[in-house]
């Protein structure tokens, strides 16, 4: 859970080679990387810039006389900073640098760069590398810094699957300007399942513990109730169980789309890139944010013991919440999706609705009202309505400012909170729709029934959560919202008997969870005592600090 020094080797270094190195290059490098004869990382972010890739300062200048690239970090803010596995573990890196050929700045490109000697592991001349120090979490990963002092690499170390520099310096452009960003799109495509998994771990701990913990009464009786029987506890945990499933289903779809994209790009078809970029930008943002919220609620649902490291939930939180920042800061990514949504609105206004992709086609179709009692399809229409409403509102605000003479960037900034709201609603619609579709495809009727209950819980919870948007233009009435509330409480109670099975079905072992509270056997109290006794402070009855500090203080006559 704390991460692994080789995580980025598998998650980004190898995928970057697969997607961006030519077949010929990969004959040399890929097999070695897969056999872990070389260990790599993905070095893009710098001390001064992470979000704005166009302003990366590390340069790779082509020297036609030697057919080499010269890598250089001209100032302190140009140092690579943050890459996982860079500090101590990696001897190679895929380095993203601004490529300069014949004095022309050609933007960020990826290079394979050797950092350390393959035998001694010592850093090579011209390279400064080290670890950036302790972090909120993920401390088993050596996130690092890296500087280049006019460090030379062969021309053929530019990853050349999609763009090339010929020996004479002729530049061959890629089929899509952002194709070098594929390693990021890949991780973003995988993040919904990864985050769903973090959320699932925290929920497994909290739900299991909530059936062991007894506190207070619902009806007067002999025995105190399991805290999971409180409606508030169910409301805290069960919607997140639904989300963990929903995120996983959405993630399966984006992973499949990424695989499809890779194949299509190899045949020169880049049409899916913009759609997948927009989709995964929104999805990673919403999923990471909601996961962090869900994990924190799971911790609080464990009361005081949730705050102990014995719960292990704080570690899960620390790792998961990193996802709000890495692979694109969430606001920045929501604004990427917003660009796509605004373009879609502009297309509709220009009478080109027919050209809209399937995920945004709903933006052109107005619905007057819904009958929620008819079922989940009507909820989908309600989600479409609020997303459409907010997308149009935010877009109109931006376009109006533009028309009034504001510069594009200024108009964008003044509309950006509204735009991020639109992106979130659009993404939540996508999550609900993939959840619905995935449940419909389940063959086993008993499994389908339980998952359908979760789906119902999800759509009612979500609609209530975005109710202000739906009330704003009178699309939903307050009596419809009362119905949604009643449905929500109905499904909380219906799910209660299956709650433990739902979390057990994720099949985390005790070793994976590392939680005293979430033990499969439920022996929480004995093990909490054993865990406390094993604390380093309990190794001796009297600590050395007693003689050194406490006694002089206690004996002082002052
Ligand atoms: C695989 C398993 C993973 C599971 C994970 C789960 C568990 C985790 C376990 C371990 C993982 C541990 C750590 C994770 C590693 C983290 C690694 C990193 O963080 S790597 C660094 C990531 N950095 C970023 O994400 C930077 C974010 N910034 C950007 O992406 C870009 O700067 C930008 C914001 C997108 C803007 O780019 P740029 O300035 O070049 O673009 P513009 O010129 O403004 O043009 C925008 C234009 O381009 C389109 N576009 C942008 N990106 C793409 C893309 N990727 N594909 C297609 N199109 C793209 C964009 O849509 C605009 O188009 P248009 O509106 O038409 O102009
Ligand atoms: C755990 C972890 C692992 C990482 N691993 C790697 C790795 O392996 N390789 C790698 O290269 N990098 C890695 N990173 C770096 C990471 O990708 C960046 O930190 C991330 O992309 C955010 O960029 P930033 O730090 O520049 O944030 P900033 O952009 O400085 O964000 C600061 C604030 O500014 C806001 N902001 C910035 N730009 C805009 C804008 N245009 N509009 C509106 N608001 C804006 C943001 O929303 C945020 O609130 C890692 C980071 C972490 C935390």
UniProtKB/TrEMBL annotation:
Source species taxonomy: Eukaryota, Metazoa, Ecdysozoa, Nematoda, Chromadorea
Naturally occurring in which organism (per UniProt): Caenorhabditis japonica
GO cellular component: peroxisome
Domain of life: Eukaryota
Subcellular location: Peroxisome
Residue ranges of the TM segments: none
Record has Nucleotide-binding as a keyword: yes
Domain Acyl-CoA oxidase C-alpha1 positions: 181-342
Coiled-coil regions listed: none
Pathway(s) served: Lipid metabolism; peroxisomal fatty acid beta-oxidation
Protein name per UniProt: Acyl-coenzyme A oxidase
UniProt keywords, alphabetically: ATP-binding, FAD, Fatty acid metabolism, Flavoprotein, Lipid metabolism, Nucleotide-binding, Oxidoreductase, Peroxisome
Annotated Pfam families: ACOX (PF01756), ACOX_C_alpha1 (PF22924), Acyl-CoA_ox_N (PF14749)
One GO MF term: FAD binding
Needed co-factor(s): FAD
GO BP terms in the entry: ascaroside biosynthetic process; fatty acid beta-oxidation using acyl-CoA oxidase; lipid homeostasis
